[in-house]
Amino acid sequence: MLEVKQVSKLYENSRGVHNIDFSMQRGEIVGFLGPNGAGKTTTMRMITGYLNPTHGQIWVDGHSMAESPKKARRKIGYLPETPPLYPEMTVQSYLRFIANLRDVPAREQKLAVSEAISKLGLQGREKQIIRSLSKGYKQRVGLAQAILHKPDLLVLDEPTSGLDPKQIIEIRQLIHELGENHTVLLSTHILPEINAICNRVLIINQGRVVLDERPEHLGRTMGETFEVSLEVKGPRERILTELRSLPSVGEVKEVDTAAANETPPAQAAPALEAESATDEAASPALAVAPTPTESVKLLVTSADRAEDIREALFFRLAGAGYPILEMKRESLSLEDIFLKLTTDEPAEPELVPSEEVDTDA
């Protein structure tokens, strides 16, 4: 659906975007991430035809943006960070105006506007002046104008910026639904949105693509060691012995949770300190030594960085008679990966001509 091949944008003898190269297939929702000034908005403006690349080629559904820009643009729906709305118009009149601009045939305009209003939940607000709408509904109108001509590719720049939590959830759901019939390139600074609705992540830093991967494969791409947190019921030393004897296990660390539960020495009850050894022996209920029925929490690392050791852990501990109360794979979060890829070097500001303003906000 979208091919971006070796695209660069040169600003005042410096490259704002460096040989960007990626493609998108039909039905994908791709999260486009990067710090301020990384080149996200410049890239999206080139994809949508608002800027011409200095070098490289962009194809939308087989149409070259350089050679057939009109055909390519007809395939695209674009929502900038600030929706391109006319506040003095009503929702319905604005969408009809956009339908004319998008060359929607006159006989189809009424149906197209009605479908966009229905899909974006704008029923009952058709006659309302856009100025009077809440920010959340203005975003809905912005999305409605982007899908009005039924484009194959949607390019969305910070669609949930400035919304309240309820509105964010609603817009995310709308984008997820739109992804069923459209290819979506979504730029955002809200990383949970990527996990919530995207099936691929593209990270750009200092004008270059530094990561292009599916969310579930991010840890493997970053060379992450396979690590599992465990809670196992049974005697501590025996459990440690069993796990450390497994060839596939590299390291076993005990997670110290006892310290948070222990009574500090200064707060120990004086009456207990005064009791004699005979009294203690006569009161076994006061003993605090671990028993075989207690559980131990551990962090277990694979000997081979990428090997999944969960099955081996399960069978070894089950065979020894020690039930696993909890098992969870530990992995780098998207936030960790983003910071690792974008903070190794200080980002250089993207140079923009005076007539163009790149608002990677």
From TrEMBL:
Organism superkingdom: Bacteria
PANTHER family in alphabetical order: ABC TRANSPORTER, ATP-BINDING PROTEIN
Sorted alphabetically, the keyword list is:
ATP-binding, Nucleotide-binding, Transport
Keyword Protein transport in annotation: no
Q: Where is this region: Disordered?
A: 260-288
Whether GTP-binding counts among this entry's keywords is: no
Which InterPro entries does this UniProt record tie to the protein? AAA+_ATPase, ABC_transporter-like_ATP-bd, P-loop_NTPase
Q: Ranges for the ABC transporter domain?
A: 2-231
Its source organism is: Paenibacillus roseopurpureus
Q: Could you say which protein family the record assigns here?
A: Belongs to the ABC transporter superfamily.
**Composition-biased stretches (Low complexity):** 260-275
Name the Pfam families for this protein.
ABC_tran
Which SUPFAM superfamilies does the entry mention?
P-loop containing nucleoside triphosphate hydrolases
* Protein name in the entry: ATP-binding cassette domain-containing protein
**Gene Ontology molecular function:** ATP binding; ATP hydrolysis activity
The organism's taxonomy opens as: Bacteria, Bacillati, Bacillota, Bacilli, Bacillales
